Amino acid sequence: MIRRLISVTITWAFLVSVQLFSQTFRGGVGGTLTDASGAAVAGAAVKLVSPDTGLTRDSTSSSAGEFVFQDLPLGTYDITVTQSGFDTVHVSGVVVDAGKVNNLALKLEVAKQATTVEVQAAAVAIETTSSAETSLIDTKQILDIPLNGRDFTQLLKFNPGANANGSLNGSRFNGIDWKIDGADNNDLWHNINSVNQGGVSGIAGVVLPIDAIDEFSLQSSSNAEENRNSGGVLNVVIKSGTNNFHGSVYYFNRNEIFAANDWFTPPGSPNSELRNNQEGFSLGGPIVRNHTFFFMNYEQQNYKEALTAVGTTPSAAWVSETSQIMARDGLQVNPLALALINNLWPANSLTGPATVHNYNGGGINISNSYNGVVKLDHQFNEKNNIAIRYFGGTGNQTEYIGSAIPYYFQAAPSRMHNFSLVYNKVISPRFVAQTLAGVNYFKQVFGDANHGFDMPAIGLNTGVTNPTDFGSPNINISGFDSTGLTPPLGRIDTTGHIDQTFTYTTGAHEFRFGGDYRRSRLDVFYDANAPGTFTFDGTQGPLAAQCRNDTWEVSRIMSAERAVSQPIARFTRRLPRRPHQYCSRKHRLR
Question: 64 and 171: one domain?
């Protein structure tokens, strides 16, 4: 079944305040200028410069002595204030963090001679501009925190008000709006994060490299500008290039030779193979100094875990013993049942004795992930700059989920893409605009590791002719490992949005207004039971009266030959001989 959901949302927000408003994926700097008597200094020239990238912004203090620089890329800035009759004030080291607006209270002294007053930002900056609660984890902390699998979503639990289940301040676990550089990073189906979402056994199929993260910002009690989720806004800000080259090369390894034996490994025996390799590199720097910059990060993860998957299969010994029991009652083995056994079970799994746990699958859990980030920043001039960023990841997982037969391990290929474009324009010193375009693409498919069985060609007419739904039916024989554990299912989730924000400052007031256009499309296919479901538990058929309550307790094989063999006898006899008989049976396709 394919379900399609298309959602279009248009939102307008209009905010007015005497203070500055909080940011989300970017930050800001504002301040108030006063003289020695505490009176506001109007008309002062305020210049902001990034020593790392050369980004420059100019503003003029209002009649209330206030100035503001909104929607700034993260980094460290210097601010210079000049006004006729006053000493020049130079503030260095003003840090701009995601989701915060630093407020500087600067006092200008009457000039007695040509001097410049040097001020360190730490002495004057304070966050008083917003009621939003913003917690930050910077790049050094991110790299120093030991994260299992280097999965950035685990950072959520280190923030105040968050718990391990993903709830923030008592909200639902899916009440957080996930973003990357302001672009949507939500899976519309589950309403949780798209990139780094868990696949088989909760292991992330695609991983955003943490070496690419500049800041991890979690903001609660947001304003109307952030309207998607009530729990909070979680923004991951990707690093940018600067005038200096910076980068990293790294390799992380997890290996069983460094692990202690578990409780089930006999003394002196080697540990089972367990390997997790993560390697990558990052590099950022200038293309054109003070104008164009790049940053890139590539990372791959290759995980392998050997396991002893012990199971029970309808081996030739089981079929032989069951055939003898059936022959005593004048029952024949259905050739279709033998055909299914010989096709749906690997040949090497059918060589064991007629006992419980007659097959050691010796399977391997495998997870591979390949991920990359590219970001470009360009400053056209002092009034126009743009940032373009792309993340792409692909992953494939094959994991044991209950059957020792490798055919029926669960396979989950994943594909994720996330794109953002941010354009900033200074219309005037008091009027600025920011345009954000974002696209998020999520694809994840689940199925059996071997889903190529054409059942009508084998002889069981399930009515499935679409190759998408090929695969083994879910056959459950009591006491044996099942087949067809994962029917074809998956979804493609695409969201695109454009956000437009304007900020205008006059006097002691700031007006921040804008809108959001969002279009989401969800294509879902959950073909549950498409190949069919069959259960053979010994409660029906010609042997049911002899063992009415039997559930095939195979551990009693030596003392109850007929009872333990009844379900497989049911399987080897009751499957339909001709296709047209199939739908008339109780165990028909559901």
Answer: no
Q: Which one, of 205, 240, 186, 264, lies nearest residue 395 by Cα?
A: 205
Distance CA 346, CA 315 (A): 10
* Per-residue tokens: 535: 């259960």
Domain-terminating residue out of 126, 149, 183: 126
Are 202 and 237 members of one domain? yes
Q: Residue 293: beta bridge partners?
A: 286, 377
Helical ranges in 201-315 per DSSP H: none
Token digits of residue 173 = 């676990």
Structural domain for 80, as ranges: 21-126
Evaluate whether 35 touches 61 at the Cβ level (below 8 Å). Answer: no
| Pairing assessment for the beta strands 116-120 and 125-126 based on DSSP bridges | unpaired
Paired residues of 294 in beta bridges: 285, 376
End-to-end CA distance of the chain: give it in Å, rounded.
Answer: 14
Q: What residues form DSSP beta bridges with 526? A: 489
* Closest CA relative to residue 423, chosen from 499, 312, 487: 499
Residue positions counted in the chain: 590
Binned average pLDDT, 10 residues per bin, the chain of 590 residues: 56 49 73 89 92 91 88 91 89 87 87 59 51 77 86 84 75 83 90 86 85 88 68 88 95 86 71 88 95 96 86 91 83 88 92 90 86 96 94 93 91 94 91 94 92 89 85 90 90 93 83 88 85 83 56 39 54 50 30
pTM of the full structure: 0.82
